[in-house]
Write a structure and sequence with these properties.
GO molecular function: transferase activity
Keywords: Transferase
Organism: Noccaea caerulescens
Oligomer: single chain
Strand content: 25-35%
Order of helices and strands: EEEHEEEHEH
Protein name: Cytosolic sulfotransferase 18
Helix content: 25-40%
InterPro entries: P-loop_NTPase
């Protein structure tokens, strides 16, 4: 059997409006170390939140330049320029994705024949 991992990379061509909510990776920087609970007690952050904070701190040390989107500078990493949400996702995938010898990895942008590509 061959496991097929399909990743669809979203690409926005315009700034987010009030009708579009930002993706989890595009939200503001995580700064709290504990989260308030409904009963007033505080809970420890999840493993995902800890990793996200670590990636954000690491990304802050990389070179930044003003890009074509005023609120999203371009960040250099590994000889390439990324927007912050994409770079956070790449760092997460580099750390946690474990490919197997039988894996077949396919990437495509939406509306570029993704359904056809999945059928392969």
């Amino acid at each position: 059997f061959v496991r097929i991992q399909t990743i669809i990379i979203s690409h926005r061509t315009h700034e987010s409006s009030d009708l579009l909510s930002p993706s989890p990776m595009e939200s503001s920087t995580v700064t709290k170390t504990t989260l308030p609970n409904h009963d007033g007690t505080e809970t420890e952050p999840t493993e995902f939140e800890k990793n996200r904070k670590r990636y954000q701190d690491l990304i802050d040390t990389f070179p930044h330049v003003k890009g074509w989107r005023p609120k999203n500078p371009l960040i250099e990493y590994g000889g390439y320029w990324f927007l912050r949400p994409r770079l956070e996702g790449c760092l997460y995938a580099q750390e946690f994705f474990e490919a197997r010898p039988i894996d077949f990895f396919i990437c495509s942008y939406p509306k570029t024949g993704t359904t056809w590509l999945k059928a392969l």
